[in-house]
Structures are given as structure tokens and as C-alpha cells.
Amino acid sequence: MEIRTSRLVLRSLERAHLDQMLPLITREVAATTLRITHPYTRKDAEEYFDGMEADIAKGKMLQMSIFVASSDEYCGSVGLRIEREHGRAELGYWLGVPYWGQGYASEATQAVVAYGFGELGLNRIYATVFAGNTASCRVIGKAGMKYEGCMCQHVNKWGRFLDVEVYGLLATDWRNAVQ
């Protein structure tokens, strides 16, 4: 599967992308994400792919590699963890540090949100962000998500309990915004 935006090409994440992916998953990237560890090894990636492929086969996940269209450089990943019985999905993404601050995350998340509401027929898409991660708050805000609340000390990341903020968007609000 492929989704094109003005500057990006989103392709189904494949094991063939591992060699491009691994060098980009640095400590800085892991520090901003809920599910990425550091160091992130090939074994970690292989285990992730095993679970992801099973979830994709069951319709529980959409996971895309992000490529810069002009150079075909791999720069990150974006996806949805889908809960069909509830008509919702959790948006997740990461970009390698060299690609931060260029609007790629916003462009990729907007494309996946549109796909989730348009093609997948979801009712709600939400995202969780570590409190204080203003860059991610801007990214999901550009996708139309609104702040819904804070789960205090919700996760333990590297020995510290961190607050997690929840942002969400309903299909009706998304449709009204894009018309």
C-alpha cells in the first residue's frame, strides 16, 4: 500500500526497511516515544516485526514507512493501532532526528488520519504524548486533534514516571474541518 503527499511517500512498513530504520532510532527518538526502547537493536526490530505482521493480518494495525519523495530517503514511521470493535485507533509516529522540524511528521500524520477516517471508516483517532513534548503536541494539533486530558505518572520511562497527555479527534469533526 502507498499514500502520497506533496513531499512524502508512505509505504507499508517492511523488513526490507530495517537497515534504513535502525540507524535513525537514536536515544533522542526513543526518549519521545512510549514504545521504543534504547538501545534499539536488530533483535528488538525483528520482534516488533513479528508482532506487527500478525496484527496487520488481523486488521489491528496500519504501519507505514515515511520516505522523502524527492530523495527516497527513509525518515521514520507512522501508523494506527486499530480497535475495530470500538471504531477507534491510536496514532503513533516517529522521525529520525535529521528530519525533525521540517513538517514531515505533520504531513505524514495528517495523511494517515485522513486514511483512517476515509478508507478505514474509523469513528475516533487519538494520540498520547509525554507531557512537555511540545513538538508532538503541534504535530497532532495540525492533524486536528484536541487535548482531552492528562494521565498522571502513567508510564515508567527509564526509571521515571511520566505524565501522558491524550489528544483525540472524531470523524465528524474531521469531516467538518476538511470541507
Question: Summarize this, please?
Answer:
This protein is α+β, with helices and mostly antiparallel strands and 179 residues long. The protein is built from six helices and eight strands, in the order E-E-H-H-H-E-E-E-H-E-H-E-E-H.
CATH hierarchy: architecture: 3-Layer(aba) Sandwich
Oligomeric state of this protein: single chain
- Count the strands? 8
- What percent of the residues sit in helical stretches (DSSP H or I)? 25-40%
Structure overview:
The structure is a single chain. The chain is of the alpha+beta class and 179 residues long. The chain has one domain: 3-Layer(aba) Sandwich (Aminopeptidase). It is built from six helices and eight strands. The chain has an eight-stranded mixed sheet with strand order 1-2-3-4-5-6-8-7, sandwiched between helices. β5 (88-95), α4 (104-118) and β6 (124-130) form a beta-alpha-beta unit. α4 (104-118) packs across α5 (134-142).
Could you name the key traits of this structure?
single chain; 179 residues; alpha+beta; Aminopeptidase; eight-stranded mixed β-sheet; 32% helix; globular
